[in-house]
Amino acid sequence: MGAGHAQTLFDKVWSDHVVMEETADTPAILYIDLHLIHEVTTPQAFTLLREKGLPVRRPDLTLGTMDHSTPTTPVRSFKDLAVVGEGAANQVVKMQDNCRDFGLELFGFDSDNRGIVHVIGPELGATQPGKTIVCGDSHTSTHGAFGAFAFGIGTTEVAHVLATQSLLQRKPKTLAVNVSGRLQAGVTAKDVILAIIGQLGVGGGTGHVIEYRGEVISAMGMEARMTICNMSIEAGAKAGMIAPDDTTIEYLAGRPRSPSGADWDKAVQRWRELPGDPDVIFDKFVDLCGDTLEPMVTFGTNPGMVIPINDPVPGAEGDPGFRKALEYMQLSPGKPLTGSPVDVVFVGSCTNSRVSDLKQAADILRGRKISPGVTMLVVPGSQQVKHEAESLGLHKVFEAAGAQWRESGCSMCIAMNGDTVPSGRLCVSTSNRNFEGRQGIGARTILASPLTAAASALAGHVADPRSYL
Ligand code: SF4
After folding, report:
1. Mutate-to-test residue for ligand 1 from 37, 139, 226, 385, highest number of ligand atoms within 8 A of CB
2. What tens digit of pLDDT does each residue of 370-419 get?
3. How far is the CA of 369 from the centre of ligand 1 (A)?
4. Contact, 81 vs 70, CB < 8 A?
5. Which domain holds residue 22?
6. Judgement on whether residues 137 and 15 belong to the same structural domain of the protein
7. How confident is the model at residue 4 (pLDDT cuts 50, 70, 90)?
């Protein structure tokens, strides 16, 4: 965009990173500031590099962790961690070998920095405003909470970034989502993003980068903002972003990988210039009123099939896909989900596994017992989160209530590490995806906030958290 044009936050980050402009025939070449890698989407990428005899171009801008395939069962020593399944074990071994052979930093089993890739980037301070950040994982959009342009890439693109530290990209359009007003007690960031996806639909953000704005977003802490940006992809968006402000800068101050001294002052000055110009025009604009939002729950097999917790499940209206989703979920239209018996409750995932999420769940559970028929897993997003939660005594609250307190990892968000929901069972989950089989073959998933998840564990059925506050 030329001088004199008002720019969005996204426009500014994009134009700062374009190595070569796009043309009608070729996409732009975009420079990448941070490449996060994990064990699932990298083995083929490293094979490609080996075949072509290429090194990793910028090991210093590449950071590895293990999260998807790693078990979360508590162990006395990390030497005792047994990876479940041959496929997962191979991925873990390959990740260790590849990072060693290519000279890359890896937070392995015994590292205090290990955790879900989208939890560790921010907590280390590696995620910063104005950066371009990629990872072979859809929920890379999480890092946009800091005003970074962050998006998921495929395996071939992972190889491309490893070899060149750049990527071919078409410039997406911009979509502003404005959330005005103030949230009521019992309504959280997870409810806001589920309501936004419900309004936009799962394809509503396609081809766009969403910028979240308004009083509700400004009032949120960084962890809540990460929950919002995390699920941008579930509305089909390329990425989600929030303009950096005092909250962002305060969060990053003193983190291990944040700039320090004079570099910190320079960085803050740069970050302060990133928010969009006041008179900027977005390609699309959507408004949502925060005052009237309620706790939200999904009832179908995509995150856009979502309702306020006391509303009845809508009718199929002749839509075969809709009918199939309700059949899979074993739900009938016309009745609310509250009261549906719950078998499993999962608090965790890159959407809701940070200390503030765990505090919310603990506030509901404190001094109470979960229903005898419910299995509840609480899985911190990283070892750092685990240590902090334990120093606050949250693990004791969970264990006293009858929940399991685990090691960090993706756990029940994705059925590939030994933590699964049995077939046919209903799980209230704080994760981000509810398609058929996501949490295990035949598993039925209701996406909800940590408050709703904890309330449902106590009640033994889907429950409105406001009655436990
Ligand atoms: S927690 Fe779930 S969504 Fe997040 S990175 Fe892990 S598998 Fe992906």
Report:
1. 139
2. 999 999 999 999 999 999 999 999 999 999 999 999 999 999 999 999 99
3. 28
4. yes
5. 9-169
6. yes
7. low
